[in-house]
UniProtKB/TrEMBL annotation:
The modification 4-aspartylphosphate is found at residue 53. The keyword Transcription applies. The keyword Transcription regulation applies. GO terms for molecular function: DNA binding. This is DNA-binding NarL/FixJ family response regulator. Residues 147-212 form the HTH luxR-type domain. Keywords: DNA-binding, Phosphoprotein, Transcription, Transcription regulation. Residues 3-118 form the Response regulatory domain.
Length: 214
């Protein structure tokens, strides 16, 4: 069972999400919060995935997400937005959120996204990843040296895996592309996350694009 928390200041949005997610046998909404300042008390260690609104009256979703991800064993966080090109979404992804969903995402796609994130898989399609990266590279003409240094620490094989992640490939696709087993891909990814100080695939994708590898 995947345990979910909903954080949104609109009770109708929370009710709609609860209804959609509750229809899946393997998903359970166990906590809700109406503002970012309620997250610390509402979201316990038993929560697997948090659906987090960005704009809330007192404490926004970015601050609440950052606080959650500072936990020793943080939940996966998916930010919710009404705009697919919102600058706040980029900030949330860089902070470690696992991805984002538009609030008008179809119910089936919403359920599948939660399942994928809970399983540690990327939930952003290659087209969405490319769109986000284009915005980042357009805004950041100079690559901070620290990012280049991080990528330079990767071995040749780790760099190939990181580049494949930057291209939006799944673990299975990386295994086929680089002629290695799925277990080997996962082992390389673990080392890539560690060396790049990344918590998810989106951060890896942004870093390799910042470094000019994709």
């Amino acid at each position: 069972m995947i345990r979910i928390a909903l954080v949104d200041d609109d009770p109708l949005v929370r009710a709609g999400l609860r209804l959609i997610l509750g229809g899946a046998d393997d998903l359970e909404v166990i906590a809700e919060a109406a503002d970012g300042d309620e997250v610390a008390s509402a979201v316990g260690t038993d929560v697997d995935v948090v659906l987090m609104d960005i704009r809330m009256p007192r404490v926004d979703g970015l601050e609440a997400t950052a606080a959650l991800l500072r936990r020793t064993e943080p939940p996966q966080v998916i930010v919710l937005t009404t705009f697919d090109a919102d600058d706040d979404v980029l900030r949330a992804l860089r902070a470690g959120a696992s991805g984002f969903l538009l609030k008008d995402t179809p119910p089936d796609a919403l359920v599948e996204a939660v399942r994928k994130v809970a399983a540690g898989e990327p939930m952003l399609s290659p087209s969405v990843t490319e769109q986000l990266i284009r915005r980042v590279t357009a805004q950041e003409q100079v690559v901070p040296p620290s990012r280049t240094d991080l990528v330079a620490a990767l071995s040749e094989r780790e760099r190939e895996v990181a580049v494949a992640v930057g291209q939006g490939l799944s673990n299975a696709e990386i295994a086929a592309e680089l002629h290695m087993s799925l277990a080997t891909v996962k082992a390389h990814l673990t080392r890539v996350f560690g060396k790049l100080d990344a918590t998810n695939r989106v951060q890896v994708a942004l870093l390799v694009h910042d470094a000019g590898l994709v």
